[in-house]
Amino acid sequence: MSVPQGSCPVDPGQMEALLLDMAKGLLALVKPEEELVLLGIRSRGLPLAERLAEKLRALSGAPIPVGSLDITLYRDDLTEMVGSPIVRPTEIPFTLKERTVVLVDDVLYTGRTVRSAMDALLDHGRPRRVMLVVMAERSGRELPIQADLAGIRVQVPPGHRVAVSVREIDGTDGITVEAC
Amino acid sequence: MTAERYIFPHKHLLGIEPLSPRDITALLDQAQAFEEVCERPNIKIVPALRKKLVVNLFFENSTRTRNSFEIAEKRLSAEIINFDADTSSLNKGETLIDTAMNLQAMHPDLIVMRHSAPGAHTLLSRHMKASIINAGDGSHEHPTQALLDAYTLRKHFGRLEGLRVAIVGDIRNSRVVRSNLWLLNRMGAKVTLVGPPTLVPQEMKATWPGIEICHDFDAVLPEQDAIMMLRAQFERGTGAYIPGQGEYSRFYQLNPARMKRARKDVVVLHPGPINRGLEITSDVADGPNNLILDQVTNGVPVRMAVLFMLSNPHGEQVP
To answer: What's the number of domains chain B is made of?
Structure first.
């Protein structure tokens, strides 16, 4: 969808419905024998992954392990940043071997975060396959990376910011588009 | 998120003295993330310092500190040069500044240095573009040891504020004590220095007014949460300050009899290397209350945190 600046393509009440659609969509994409694990990319990918796992469990009856990934140390612009960012722990308390790993993030934009996340996760093991699920996919890719599933897809010109809020971090759910 | 991003404001780590509580907490938090890297089942290496050159410049002997730094550097994917004082031109009369200028010409990003002269690092930092990390300067400071001690205590107790810590032994000759005093005081721990009057200079109270000094180990033992035993450093002249090793052990050795006076859940730290049977007996050093090997393990993520925090260009810089 194409949205004007300052708009709210998704308001608080819609986020849960989107997550449920994403959970259904994800189950349709995987084979029954695949063992799913979710890895939320910090910060906002983690609560989204936890909520998605809850919906998947409700739909399929099977609990889905959730881990977190901090990609700071794998960023390609790390040495150009002013000061060193604080690194938060990566928590993957289960094996990735032969599992289907679903990376969960809030926004897919340039693709650089996902590139870093793939490097980071491959240091933890060799999954059977890796998928990408995002709440919002926007235009502006700088790497050949695409999402397997997105809550919404938005066309926005450069110089705009697509921001996903989650109640666990921001106090409220929603997606906004703003000029930056 | 609108929260202001914290930027570590120091270019060098010359000591704990210049650090604020916020800086110390940032380093310890950062070390926690690196501990996860060190505990990984598979690949314990991250690309954070890729393409950075680190020089390990050791003018004084060191095994564990140097190994710990080298492991930390390797786990961050840094390029490493080891520069040994023994094999360098220092034996041919080159000055410290000349050595430094020659190193500078090779454009290192970070220099980890141990030197016997207090303040050698400060001198060097004025002549170098690289960030300098003090790995021990005489009896002045040993900041990464204090950080790993604090990390070990914080991990065990969940806090530093209000902890009662006795530091016991050769206070006079110890750089570990000075760094620990800056750190523990700044973070709100209650420190008691314990040792014979000749080895515990009273004037330390002038620099750290919050500390207690006590010469009776048995009297202060029961109320401590942590006991930090120091190495009796005979190579630095400890022997000249005490009547003999036997007498030293009688009053200041941590042994099973003394442990009975301490809290059941007291923890025992020692920066190493240990003089078994002198300042501490083997059954205590290897006993259930000891965190001595935890300190060694924690040294790596703490040094990774220091290297990482200093490796990026800074905003407003203070030494």
So the answer is: 2
Dihedral sign for Cα atoms in the order B245, B246, B248, B253: positive
Q: Judge if B45 and B98 occupy the same domain.
A: yes
Q: Inter-chain contact B52–A79, Cβ cutoff 8 Å?
A: yes
Q: Are residues B289 and B214 part of one domain?
A: yes
Q: Which domain holds residue B208?
A: 143-296
B32 lies within 8 A of chain A by CB: yes
Residues B196 and B236 in one domain: yes
B12 domain residue, yes or no: no
Closest Cβ opposite residue B32 in set A89, A119, A169: A89
* pLDDT bracket for residue A7 (50, 70, 90): low
Chain A nearest-CA distance from B43, in A, is: 5
CATH fold for the domain made of A12-76+89-179: Rossmann fold (3.40.50)
Helix axes B143-157, B292-310, angle to 10 degrees: 120
CB contact under 8 A, B8 and A84: yes
DSSP annotation string for chain A: -B--TT--SB-HHHHHHHHHHHHHHHHHHS-TT--EEEEEETTTHHHHHHHHHHHHHHHHSS---EEEE--GGG-TTGGGSSSPPPPPPPB--S--TT-EEEEEEEEESSSHHHHHHHHHHHTT---SEEEEEEEEEES--SSS---SEEEEEEB--TTEEEEEE-HHHHSS-EEEEEE-
- What CATH number did the domain enclosing B106 receive? 3.40.50.1370
Residue B150 lies in a domain: yes
Size of the A and B interface in Cβ pairs below 8 Å = 65
B147-182 pLDDT, tens digit per residue, is 999 999 999 999 999 999 999 999 998 999 999 999
Give ipTM to 2 decimals: 0.84
Please report how the helices B175-186 and B143-157 are oriented relative to each other, as an axis angle in degrees rounded to 10. 50
Please tell me the distance from the alpha carbon of residue B271 to that of residue B277, in angstroms, as a whole number: 16
pLDDT of residue B180: 98
User: Is A88 an 8 Å CB contact of chain B?
Assistant: yes
